[in-house]
Here is the input.
Amino acid sequence: QVQLVESGGGLVQTGGSLRLSCAASGRTFSTYAMGWFRQAPGKEREFVACIGTMSTRIYYTDSVKGRFTISRDNAKSTVYLQMNSLKPEDTAVYYCAAVYGARWYGAPRTPETYDYWGQGTRVTVSS
Here is the structure.
C-alpha cells in the first residue's frame, strides 16, 4: 500500500502561482511513477502531468506546458507540481497518483494506470 497526501492548494488570482506537494508513505517511493490529475466541477478527471521513477521521463498535457512543472524528491518521498501563470480554467481539485514503475510505461496519461490516489487538494483561480 502507498498512502498519498496532497497539500498546497488554495485561492489565487489569475497569473499567480501555487506549488502542490504530494507526500507518499508506505512503500519505496523511488520505485513508483507519479502523476497529477485534476477534476473540475461537472467534468471528468483529466491528466495534468506525470514523472517516471528517476525523473528521466516527464509528460504534460498540452494546456499546462510551459506553465506547470512536475518534479520529485525521492529522498523526501514527495512529488511536486509547480503551477505558474494560473488561469481560471485551471480551477479544479488536484489529485496525485502512484503506480509501480514497470506498469507506468504503457499508458502514463491514463487514470486507470494508477493504483493509488490521494484525497485531493482544491485549487481556485479567480479572474
Remarks:
- The chain has no helices and eleven strands.
- The radius of gyration is 13 Å.
- Residues 110 and 118 are 16 Å apart (CA to CA).
- The mean pLDDT is 95.
